[in-house]
Amino acid sequence: MDGRRPTIQSRHGMVAAAHPLAAQAGARLLIQGGNAFDAIAATAAALTVVEPFMSSLSGMGSATLWSAAEGRVSVLDFVPPIQRSFPAERFTQRSDLERGPHAVAMPGNLAGWCELVSRHGRKTLAEVFAPAIALARDGFALSEFGVAEFNEQAPLLQAWAELYSGFAANYLPEGGPVRVGQVLRQPDLATTFTAIAAEGPDHLYRGALGQRIVAHLRSLGGLMTMTDLAAVKPRWREPFAATYRGLTVHVPPPPCEAFQFLLSLKILEGCDLGGLVKDGPEHLDLVFRAIRLAAGVRIAANNPSLERLAAIFAEDALAALRRRLTDGVPVEGPTEQWTPQLAEDPAHTTSFSASDAEGNLVCITNSLGSPFGSGIVVPGTGVCLNNFLYWSDVQTGSPNRSKPGDELPMCMSPSLSTRDGRPVLALGTPGSYGIMQTQTQAMVQHLDFGLPLQDAIEAPRARLWDGRAIEAENRIAPETLAELRRRGHAITAFDTGWTMRCGGMQAVAVDPVTGVMTGAADPRRDGYVVAV
């Protein structure tokens, strides 16, 4: 109605994902008697097929979830440490690791999906991966968003001649550019998922698939070993949580960098945002300042200990940040890594959420890294490898310089919120270091201004960059942008009202009294909700 997406609700189950066919794959598992954990793994596998520029079983990520059986929130971390074979001493700047064999970090996604099914699901891997196998074998028609991604990235990947032939053979059998409605079939990927369904994750971490990956990387000059792969193991962790407007918001703990999102909220908690004009200069000035302050703390406190984290969120520390929030002096500082970066958004990440009638609720954010990751597609497997070592810190002089075996700090931030001890909201987004920015903006729209979940996701957003730079969707009024510039923000408008540079959020909310589930999906990408 009124030019907006309708509210999608159900009492039986819900999947919100970055592609309608992936959401449908998850819903299929719910219809077949699976639970939210079966559904979320089926969705993840299907995303590997239908958004290969963002998703792969070779990527990494994490899940924040509510298990009805356990009655609590927990986090599954499938971001493996930097492999022991990584030759960190060879590199001095981030751009050295943009593409190619040395950019490839350990594949964590498959291990994570399988662990969720093993611990909390009830279906077999053959059942969970069946939708993805069918999509890869039979093919699917490319949408406008997929066409844009392929046609933007394929020419860029041609610069790596040793990588492009494998990429083109797998994704461009008809040559390029691709077109809307063109059918993409991935028979090698179907065969790979079939083998995993039969043999389990060891097919990758100790078996034939891993051997093919290692051999191909070595043929390109890489150093990854089977010992590296065998060391990959998802880790169950206790979430880090903070309260905001009556919700307790849970995110993965460090080395995940999601605490920036919670710190932004805590800084804003001292302001009566709901009493301001929505999307006006006072509202946006406070939110942008809080985001930049929290980003500065996150960068300075890279991978903080629990003691350091407690000190960051102590009331005296928050009070100091709130004073800075409202002192009127422009806030200037980094938003990405510890040194200034170019205004870029290389991360191709996806986030998706699922719920079921039993009370389970889960949000996953996982990624391939950059678009099509490292650019390497392993011949005969259909598997595109990540480039997550691009998110390690190899810059000369950095206090956070990475070493083999180090934890890999990651800006993914799947969140699960509770109210009075009951799960009420699973919410996540892609967007590299903009992830925590996007979440903050949407939560303010939802909680402070009372927007329904879908409307909160659709509300105009902005992406902050290093220094004072901000890019905003052009639905924000020009006079508001002018006032924000007067207040010290170097803000410009995108030439569009909707851009994936401001994320691609998916969410599921649950009414703890009625059990009604509400799904919401971001129109900035191919987001869709499927209810059962």
TrEMBL record:
Q: Which organism is it from?
A: Bosea massiliensis
Listed name of the protein: Gamma-glutamyltransferase family protein
Write out the ranges of the annotated region (Disordered). 329-353
Q: Which InterPro entries match?
A: GGT-like_enzyme, GGT_lsub, GGT_ssub_C, Ntn_hydrolases_N
Under SUPFAM superfamilies, the record lists: N-terminal nucleophile aminohydrolases (Ntn hydrolases)
Q: Which Pfam families match?
A: G_glu_transpept
